[in-house]
């Protein structure tokens, strides 16, 4: 008896979801590396363009390989609909601008990924959108920021780089009462451990560059939500502004999904052990990991996440100590990427967050002693030895 893919467990969705086998009966999903499509007759082209016949017309609009990736990710997320784009930033940009127009107001958590921060603080105001940043951990701050013209709320949880956690369900209630839509950047949590749509969010965005690829190869992004809202808000902007993902990249990400659950769970097991090892080291002033009882929002994290991810932040007290730590690492790479099979560590204040003015960095608690680490898939014994050795020398 045919099963409804929506009833599958996540592991099955990740392997089988969205697959469209061609007449050749291939096992791996095909890469349809084509710009356009041909029609049997002029009348057939007419039907295709009118929408009467639902086939493909141009890869800027949609592509079969890209669609397989979109359907697989939508199944995992429990979303009605997904659209893939060329990068995480294309996803954030489309997700926001598709919901906003001149005269609208947007409220965002103040700890955001650097380029998201730029869109909110520099780009949207050029088009007449007013923006307000709030301390994302304080519900009073969200309430106070709402205005009659607030149309969108943007939050990231856990947030980059200090893993601040926001109560997503509570912020959704506040935003919806004010008539605003909620967009959640769910990259750090991954779709394995947190489902913002279930918590009340309207739109979820991913940088698929991170855990979904997870092997350092391609950029990609995705926007997920209810079909009607997505069609109304994003269909035309996606067609006409061209943030389309290459079908080749979509294929890499489609295959990345097959191992996402295994990779993220293993990385997370290792991260939990390393977070304690780092936290116990005498050179470390403080460690931030959402799964630890000393995380400032550990209760919220426990309530809304089923796992705590592979990112750890820790304070070594000064830029000199943080840099010494990074330079003493042998196995772990110095790199700003995250979610990769290879473990990586970075110094946010001089790399990912250097564009953020110092006073804003201090507002979110990002002092120069902080290091952010993305735990990979190497053996825990080797990682522990590398991290302990570098901490001893820091
Ligand atoms: C990396 C990242 C992005 C941007 O994604 P790209 O694929 O690099 O464009 C957005 N948000 C968060 C939280 C990220 O980590």
Overview of the structural elements:
By secondary structure, this protein is of the alpha/beta class. The protein has 2 domains: 5-258, Type I PLP-dependent aspartate aminotransferase-like (Major domain) (Aspartate Aminotransferase, domain 2); 261-393, Alpha-Beta Complex (Aspartate Aminotransferase, domain 1). Helices cover 41% and strands 14% of the residues. The chain has helices spanning 10-16, 42-50, 64-77, 88-97, 114-123, 139-145, 168-177, 190-193, 209-213, 227-241, 247-279, 298-304, 319-328, 358-363, 380-393; strands at residues 81-85, 105-109, 130-134, 150-156, 181-185, 203-207, 221-225, 286-288, 311-315, 333-334, 344-346, 370-374. The strands form 2 sheets. Strands 1-7-6-5-4-2-3 form a 7-stranded mixed β-sheet, sandwiched between helices. It has a 5-stranded mixed β-sheet with strand order 8-9-12-11-10. Helix 1 (10-16) packs antiparallel against helix 3, helix 11 packs across helix 15 (380-393) and helix 13 packs across helix 15 (380-393). It starts with 9 loop residues before the first helix and ends with a helix. The model has no long low-confidence stretch (mean pLDDT 97). Pyridoxal-5'-phosphate binds at residues 87-89, 92, 113, 115-116, 156, 160, 185, 187-188, 207, 209-210, 219, 221. Pyridoxal-5'-phosphate (PLP) is lined by residues 87-89, 92, 113, 115-116, 156, 160, 185, 187-188, 207, 209-210, 219, 221.
